[in-house]
Amino acid sequence: MLQDRKNEHLDVVLNGLGQSRARTGFDDIMFEHVALPELHMDEIDLQTVFLGKQTSAPLLVSSMTGGPARAAEINRHLALACQEMGIALAVGSQRIALEGDKAAGIDADLRQWAPDIPLLANFGAAQLNLGYGLEQARRAVGMIGADALIIHLNPLQEAVQPEGDRDWRGLLKRIETLASALGVPLVVKEVGAGITGRLARQLVDAGVAAIDVAGAGGTSWAAVEAERAKSPEQAAIARAFVDWGTPTAYAIKSVREACPDAVVIGSGGVRDGLDVAKAIRLGADMVGQAAGILQAAIVSPEAVLASLRVTVAQLRVACFCTQSANLAELKNANLLRQIP
């Protein structure tokens, strides 16, 4: 049943039916254009360090998933492209692999395809109330040689999914226990409804190393669940929440203000390199993309590379036209319009 559900999720997203009605908030931000940048664009430095490894740009290919047959191919394409580009990769949920079914391309091969990049393992927070703990976390990390583990938060999806996990009591304490014993950094991310400052502060105080805000404006898992609902009643419950969540831009700003020293990943409806630049300016250290790369990931590593190269080129242009020689300067670029 889990494999079937993952395949249904992938089909909905690929068919363009899982889009949130919410706006990311990036359109509310406008950079001041610098007409005389006094830079050589080719010399702009986009490199950064993430999880102790240098990356060529502040990009993270965010978690994607699917049934085992397709997911294996998707993960291979992503790993090969990210290795070639020198950018970070987060895998989709490893629950199927951890529970003894097919690995879905999430196994030791992944590290062989991508030996040098930051690689992040992943499973859902709700599983911590269903028997998962340190053993499963270490297995998730070990099966791909990951540099960190993502625990993803998806309460809205679970709430509108008939087979969803409803018991979310005590999870903050379980996350704290896991963070203290795991041995690699723990990352907490939402899946499209956003994390804001108040919760981020609690998570960082509990030992979480990085927050991926995964805000509203991209894929809506309420919309996805509405599409796969088996009855009009189930669809109606889910559809009411298609625009639910904190817009990505607002989530990034809120988390950065509440957690000035934390590692912040901005994701959720990131369309292009200009959105990446805006996320960095708002306080993100890394910026994630998922659905925007999925169509390319179905095709080939070369298609993924082409998509990523366009995003990096757009980010470089944004830096050039804001007179930002590197990411530190981009974080302080002048704005004509910003969110409150």
Structural commentary:
- This protein has a single domain (2-337), classed as Aldolase class I (TIM Barrel, Alpha-Beta Barrel).
- The chain is 43% helix and 14% strand.
- It is built from 15 helices and twelve strands.
- It has helices at 2-14, 68-85, 95-98, 108-113, 134-144, 155-160, 171-181, 197-205, 221-227, 232-239, 248-258, 273-282, 291-299, 301-320, 327-330, and strands at residues 30-31, 48-50, 53-55, 59-61, 88-90, 119-124, 148-153, 186-190, 210-212, 263-267, 286-289, 335-337.
- The chain has an eight-stranded parallel barrel with strand order 4-5-6-7-8-9-10-11, surrounded by seven helices. Strands 1-12 form a two-stranded antiparallel ribbon. Strands 2-3 form a two-stranded antiparallel sheet.
- Strand 4 (59-61), helix 2 and strand 5 (88-90) form a beta-alpha-beta unit.
- Helix 9 packs antiparallel against helix 10 (232-239).
- The longest helix has 20 residues, at 301-320.
- The protein is globular, with a radius of gyration of 19 Å.
- Involved in the biosynthesis of isoprenoids. Catalyzes the 1,3-allylic rearrangement of the homoallylic substrate isopentenyl (IPP) to its allylic isomer, dimethylallyl diphosphate (DMAPP).
Extract low-pLDDT stretches: none
Percent of sequence in beta strands = 5-15%
Assign the structural class, choosing from mainly alpha, mainly beta, alpha/beta, alpha+beta, or little secondary structure. Answer: alpha/beta
Shape verdict? globular
Total E-strand runs: 12
How many domains, in number, for the residues? 1
Q: What's the total helix number? A: 15
Rg is: 19 Å
Q: Kindly report how far apart the N and C termini lie.
A: 44 Å
Helix content: 40-55%
What is the C-level CATH assignment?
Alpha Beta
Instruction: State the CATH superfamily name.
Output: Aldolase class I
Mean pLDDT: 92
